[in-house]
Specification:
It is a single chain. With 597 residues, the chain is an alpha/beta fold. It folds into four domains: 199 residues, Pyruvate-ferredoxin oxidoreductase, PFOR, domain III (Pyruvate-ferredoxin Oxidoreductase, domain 3, 3-Layer(aba) Sandwich), CATH 3.40.920.10; 183 residues, Thiamin diphosphate (ThDP)-binding fold, Pyr/PP domains (Rossmann fold); 78 residues, no CATH class; 111 residues, Rossmann fold, CATH 3.40.50. The chain is built from 21 helices and 22 strands. A seven-stranded mixed beta sheet has the order 11-10-12-13-15-14-20, sandwiched between helices. Strands 3-4-2-5-6-7 form a six-stranded mixed beta sheet. Strands 17-19-18-21-22 form a five-stranded mixed beta sheet, with helices on both faces. The two termini are 46 Å apart.
């Protein structure tokens, strides 16, 4: 007997093995639900080997629009014998357990509903050639879930059409298995669970995209001209997206020739070296990496900072230290990026919190880099970068590309006293020329060693201090340029939370839950470093401010404590770093535990 229905408010987890082709099936489910108008998010938990180890994909269905990971699984699909017992144990009481019937293990729980699925049988009966049956078998659970949960078959067809780019043969093959599985379920299964979906209109006006794809498109619309990269999880798909879309979007209409260059370098040192050279040469230059690769880029990043060369560096964070957990998410590179290089170095860092913002910062990063004549880092992570998110459509830039303080021949002819590292405006930002400038005074020597205002080599202590103070002044100028934080307030809240990046959905959900529990909090989402006055004011206007982040040591908390030393005692670090995206339940529990002390 079915109890009261639970509609559009549960999580589905699929347990398979890496390399089995389940990603197609999982994305088909996610996109079909999205096309039904239901808010949905997906998290892929996969191992760092090529294939054979367990992998899980979680789809959260939320009528309230919550996109963070849920700590509970109400609907489990078990396709992996090695994790069968673990997957069964993970189902919430009253939940549902779908399993491949060729897995000869017992159902040991009486508090869940179990549905067998003839996966091998239906795969054999499909039109798939033998070498593809292992992949096509995953479509069996798509069909069975579609019948039991009421997922619209036409939406599944649309999702397959999108996934296979309209190619009829693979669409028909996969769709045929889904239809057969639905027919089998209708004939052989009696629904006794409460979970189902119902069409909504809550996704109207939204699209689906990963952060890395969005960032690549943003860079293209920001005028990227040069990309150098070396493969590393989870940053590789950003460069792959650039390779996919640049040929479509960046050709000279008159000649048909490409207006960009993409180079896969031999290592991360070469990648950033090429990017620095291209940035110095006047190109909008980009490289991408993750933590281990970024550590190899340290010296070049310091050179670009001191020689004042604009470029953009995307860091898609993963778990460290060392090789760490390459396919788990983290926010452990905050201090590394902010202070990257030896000596007195501080960098501009953009902190996207959504796929939409990855697109925005994809193009804005170039403007900041050229205005400030410095490397600009975009700090994303695996969860935001590689998973597919529902997001508002991208807002394409309608402003002129901002090259910053560039002097051309006619400009130099009007200036009596120009030096590459002079600061005539008092904002710490000098004027630069670009290679090819034919004015006699247009050339200079770009140095990573000590230099004076005219780019002459110098080890004079006073000259060195003047140069470093000017760089400090430029960093202070950057504070006023950076994107302002986003603040969500609750009535009469004297507690604040500061977070950034992919933790945003979990914090927003926790904020709602805490308000319902009688503990209103104000929430500030940080969007950039260095921080602006609004961040300091937020800290000083609350009795206590919790800094939520995914790293062990509370790295953002450390930075904010330095920025507001008079309120450091009122800042409390709430950090967790187990490789999984944060949940609202964890945040809510951590805050309540602290408030009870």
């Amino acid at each position: 007997m079915i109890t009261d229905s639970i509609i559009n408010d549960f999580s589905i987890t699929v347990g398979t093995v890496n390399g089995s082709g389940s990603q197609t099936s999982n994305l088909t489910l996610q996109r079909a639900l999205f096309k039904m108008g239901i808010p949905v998010s997906g998290k892929n938990l996969f191992p760092s080997n090529i294939q054979g180890l367990p992998t899980w994909y979680t789809i959260r269905v939320s009528k309230d629009g919550y996109l963070a990971r849920s700590e509970t699984t109400e609907v489990m699909v078990a396709m992996n014998a090695a994790t069968f017992a673990e997957d069964q144990a993970a189902v919430a009481p009253g939940g549902v357990f779908f399993y491949a019937d060729d897995i000869e293990q017992a159902i040991t729980r009486s508090d869940i509903v179990a549905y067998p699925m003839p996966v091998e049988k239906l795969a054999r009966e499909s039109d798939a050639p033998p070498n593809l049956r292992g992949y096509i078998a995953n479509m069996v659970y798509v069909g069975v879930l579609a019948h039991i949960l009421d997922i619209h078959i036409d939406r599944i067809r649309q999702a397959l059409d999108f996934h296979f780019n309209g190619k009829e043969k693979p669409i028909a093959l996969n769709y045929g298995v889904v239809q057969n599985a639905m027919a089998w379920a209708a004939e052989n299964l009696v629904k006794t669970d409460p979970f189902r979906v119902q069409a909504m209109d809550a996704t109207d006006g939204y699209i689906m995209a990963s952060g890395n794809t969005a960032g690549a498109l943003g860079a293209i619309y920001g005028g990227v001209q040069f990309v150098s990269w070396y493969p590393i999880t989870p940053a590789t798909s950003l460069a792959e997206s650039l390779n996919q879309y640049l040929p479509m979007l960046r050709k000279d209409p008159a000649t048909g020739k490409n207006t960009y260059a993409v180079i896969q370098a031999e290592d991360e040192l070469a990648a950033i070296g090429m990017a620095v050279g291209a940035g110095w040469g006047g190109l909008r230059s980009l490289t991408s990496t993750s933590g281990p690769g970024l550590s190899l880029m340290t010296e070049y990043a310091g050179m670009a900072y001191y020689a004042e060369v604009p470029l953009v560096i995307w860091d898609i964070q993963r778990m460290g230290p060392s090789t760490g957990l390459p396919t788990r998410t983290s926010q452990g590179d905050v201090n590394l990026v902010y202070y990257l290089s030896q000596g007195d170095t501080m960098h501009v860092v953009l902190l996207p919190g959504s796929a939409n913002e990855c697109f925005e910062f994809g193009w804005r990063a170039f403007d900041y880099a050229e205005r400030l004549q410095t490397p600009v880092f975009v700090l994303s992570d695996l969860d935001l970068g590689m998973n597919v998110w529902m997001t508002p459509p991208f807002e394409y830039p309608n402003t002129e590309i901002d090259r910053g303080k560039v002097l051309w021949e006619e400009d130099l002819g009007k200036i009596e006293n120009w030096g590459r590292y002079l600061d005539p405006d008092g904002d710490g930002i000098p004027y630069r020329t670009l290679p090819g400038n034919r004015h006699p005074r247009g050339a200079y020597f770009a140095r990573g060693t000590g230099h004076d205002e005219y780019a002459n080599y110098s080890e004079d202590p006073d000259v060195w201090e003047r140069g470093m103070e000017r760089l400090r002044a430029k960093f202070e100028t950057a504070r006023g340029m950076m994107p302002k934080p986003e603040i969500v307030t609750k009535d009469e809240a004297d507690i604040g939370v500061i977070a950034f990046g992919s933790t945003d959905p979990a914090v927003r959900e926790a904020q709602d839950h805490l308000a319902d529990d009688g503990l209103p909090i104000d929430y500030m989402r940080l969007r950039a470093l260095p921080v602006c006055d609004e961040v300091r004011d937020f800290v000083r206007s609350h009795r206590r401010v919790y800094v939520v982040e995914m790293n062990r040591d509370g790295q953002l908390h450390q930075i904010l404590s330095l920025e507001t030393p008079d309120r450091a005692a009122n800042l409390k670090s709430l950090s967790k770093n187990n490789g999984l995206p944060l949940t609202a339940d964890w945040i809510e529990g951590a805050i309540l535990a602290e408030e009870r002390k």
